[in-house]
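Journal club side-thread
Mid-discussion, someone asked how the predicted structure for our own chain would compare to the paper's figures. Pasting it here so we can look after the session.
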Amino acid sequence: MILTTGMNVAAKAATCTEGGKEAYYKCEGCGKFYEDVLGTKEITDLASWGNIAKIAHTTKQTVTKATPTANGKIVNYCSVCKKTLSTTVIPKASSIKLKATSLTYNGKVRTPKVIVKDRTGKTLVKNTDYTVSYAKGRKYVGKYAVKITFKGKYSGTKMLYFTIKPKATSISSLTAGSKKFTVKWKKQATQTTGYQVQYSASSKFSKAKTVTVGKNTTVSKKISKLSGKKKYYVRVRTYKTVKINGKSIRIYSGWSKAKTVTTKK
């Protein structure tokens, strides 16, 4: 038969939020549904017939880069329906350190390693997540800058600093005198301006007194006006005067191993 009183129900296209439906015909006389206008194929269950599944979302992505102080995120969303499909947190790069911040002069250029980790403890990858640039002249005693520049999923910069100290020295002799002593040490003239002698009645150097020797060629110092028959702990270190940001500052070596001397009456 031909559905002379049939009504054509147009197909409904599927979207990413709703399924579609194939076109069909409805007989206005009997109210039945058919696949064709001739009425040869009846649709007995319209709810399950001709359904078209939802189509996939059209995915787009936005990236908010992480910094040393704030998390970032990656958001995947559908550009058609604007639905957020997934959100991934990019943990902030919260741990940015130099493997060494204090080095001793050895005549070579020093390049301490940079270690960067995010807040979860994951180590970030150099040249993928960040790059590193070092200040020039990292061969001599001084203070030097290291600049970390983030890239990829990260943004921002971080400045770190490290110090190259002069070589240390050691005490070669301690000679007691009447209410005094004389300390001698090994000469350390390379990248050194002078020395400091520190002495105290305490092995922990509490209430210690410090004497500065301004020439790197001087290798002895007499300490007088002390108490007689008293034990003193003595140690020595080197220093170099350098200019940083236009200001002269001293950079010290570590202290030598302490030695003891007992003054005479």
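Post-session note: DSSP finds no helices and 23 strands in the chain.
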